[in-house]
Amino acid sequence: MDALFADEAFDRRPRVIRPGAVWLPGFLDEAAQSWLLRQFEVWQSGPVPAHSTVIAGHPMSVKTIGLGWHWRPGRYDREAVDVNRERVLPFPEWMTRLGRTVISATAEVVSREDARAWGFDADAYCPDVALVNVYDEHAKMGMHQDKDEADPAPVVSLSLGDTCLFRFGNTENRNRPFEDIRLATGDAFVFGGPARFAFHGVKGIVPDTAPAHARIGHLGGGRINITMRTTGRD
Ligand code: SIN
Ligand code: MN
Q1: In this structure, what CATH number is given to the domain that contains residue 122?
Q2: Are 120 and 193 contacting, i.e. CB atoms less than 8 angstroms apart?
Q3: Per-residue pLDDT tens over the stretch 67-95
Q4: Of these four, 92, 124, 156, 208, which has the most CB atoms within 10 Å of its CB?
């Protein structure tokens, strides 16, 4: 790939994208990325396969696996009612610890005062669902809000595999102001507080950008994104 378009040519320092939204490039080291990709293989062979959720009659180009809960627009269930009716895998305990580590790491660029105001409290962070989204090189996700959760705790996002063009916008509408960033393998992104209900989406995948350790073998490339959320349900 032309060096001009390699991730290194972009500013990849941790920063606040807008109040409540924090990007931590390269948060996961190579070993952690490889380990997560091995977990993904387990999830793939789990009771509920990665499936295209249908939104308003249209299957998403992204395929999703839910851990803890099964997501459909507007609701969460324990069983994959629209796939095979199997109960989804539990939300892994280690993922809570990982989410807390990400929230703690935002302290590098977030003042204590802002962290308090935004609900960035690692000790109190108890996500109960992870949506694992699988993108092939053609998959996209339109601008949307994550608003099916009753608890406004921050969302923690982790990216693996090929880089994507991620758009993070405002809470009012799908239009400007927004910022386009390149989420690469190992990057963490947190949105909570005043950014919790900001519109965001994936404009596209940049094929063949994953380094060897993060290539998603069975897809021949592509990207995986994990978002942890707190449903507020029991
Ligand atoms: C999502 O908005 O649920 C996923 C975002 C991403 O894939 O980075
Ligand atoms: Mn989302």
Answers
A1: 2.60.120.590
A2: yes
A3: 999 999 999 999 999 999 999 999 999 99
A4: 156
Asked whether residue 8 is domain-assigned, the answer is no
List of residues 6+ apart from 149 with CB closer than 8 A: 129, 229, 230, 231, 232
In a domain, 7, yes or no: no
Instruction: Give the residue numbers spanning the domain of 61.
Output: 21-198+206-229
Cβ of 65 below 6 Å from ligand 1: no
Atom of ligand 1 nearest to the CA of 223: 7
Element (H, E) at 113: helix 112-118
Model pTM score? 0.96
Ligand 2 ion: nearby residues, β-carbon < 5 Å: 146
Ligand 1 close to Cβ of residue 157 (< 6 A): yes
84 and 56 Cβ atoms separated by less than 8 Å: no
